[in-house]
């Protein structure tokens, strides 16, 4: 694989050099079909699925026939809860359901790597050496994005200790903040630029941590996850080879 590099900047936006990108994460051939399937699953999992109406069997009352069958010159009815009555049941209305889809972890990993590789091939992956801001200020974040030429939507991936940077970016409307373990396909494809801190890039590249079950975005009790994270398969392959 060819050497992949991303520009390295200081927290003020001055270019400092370049940093190597892991070709297993940022240099693969993007799989559009898998990315599409994972994004559809992510958006489906965000749906609440709580819209519901009552059918004629669920509406209270209507057990008695409103009037006798014949002799009154009126249309025959068996219940005031039938759909043609005001206050009656609804025919073919929405019912509560779970829209979430099961997405294998390997598919999530491939989709995230494909999305990051697509952004890297466009030169849209940039790295900040260190956020040395003493106090959180939104104007510092705005000035940094302006220096980097980020005119559209930006995904900022931070390390766990970048508290000042997180508070500086969080008020900007076109910026999404994530930790390295929360990177998902939809947010990468949504953004026009992916901005990593140096620590976050090291974690995302699998250079400073071992992939374990705890590194994955866990699903909630309803089974609705919100996508996958970056996870290199090399650790798992080494374990299988050793066994």
Main sheet summary: 6 strands, mixed
Q: Beta fraction of the residues? A: 5-15%
Name of the CATH superfamily of the largest domain: Ribosomal protein L4/L1
CATH fold-level label of the largest domain: Ribosomal Protein L4, Chain: A
Shape assignment: elongated
Rg, Cα atoms, Å? 26 Å
Detailed description of the structure:
The chain is an alpha/beta fold and 243 residues long. It is built from eight helices and six strands. A six-stranded mixed β-sheet has the order 2-1-3-6-4-5. The protein is elongated and about 95 Å long. The C terminus is likely disordered.
Key phrases:
31% helix; disordered C terminus; six-stranded mixed beta sheet; elongated; 243 residues; single chain; Ribosomal Protein L4, Chain: A; alpha/beta
Per-chain topology:
Elements (H helix, E strand, L loop, with lengths): L3 E6 L5 E7 L1 H4 L5 H14 L59 H17 L3 E4 L9 H11 L5 E5 L4 H7 L5 E5 L5 H6 L2 E5 H7 L29 H9 L1
Helix pairs in contact: 2-3, 4-5
């Amino acid at each position: 694989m060819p050497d992949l590099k991303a520009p390295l900047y200081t927290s003020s936006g001055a270019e400092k050099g370049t940093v190597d990108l892991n070709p297993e994460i940022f240099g693969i051939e993007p799989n559009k079909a898998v990315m599409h399937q994972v994004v559809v699953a992510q958006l489906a999992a965000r749906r609440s699925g709580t819209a519901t109406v009552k059918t004629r069997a669920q509406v209270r009352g209507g057990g008695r026939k409103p009037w006798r069958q014949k002799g009154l010159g009126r249309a025959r009815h068996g219940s005031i809860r039938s759909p043609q009555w005001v206050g009656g049941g609804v025919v073919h209305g929405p019912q509560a359901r779970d829209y979430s889809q099961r997405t294998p972890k390997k598919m999530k990993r491939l989709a995230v790597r494909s999305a990051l590789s697509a952004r890297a091939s466009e030169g849209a992956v940039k790295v900040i050496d260190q956020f040395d801001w003493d106090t959180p200020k939104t104007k510092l974040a705005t000035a940094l994005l302006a220096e980097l030429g980020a005119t559209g939507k930006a995904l900022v991936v931070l390390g766990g200790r970048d508290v000042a940077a997180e508070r500086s970016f969080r008020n900007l409307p076109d910026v999404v903040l994530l930790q390295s373990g929360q990177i998902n396909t939809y947010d990468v494809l949504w953004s026009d630029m992916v901005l990593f801190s140096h620590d976050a890039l090291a974690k995302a590249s699998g250079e400073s941590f071992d992939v374990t079950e705890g590194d994955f975005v866990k699903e909630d009790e309803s089974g609705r996850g919100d996508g996958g994270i970056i996870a290199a398969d090399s650790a798992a392959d080494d374990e299988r080879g050793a066994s």
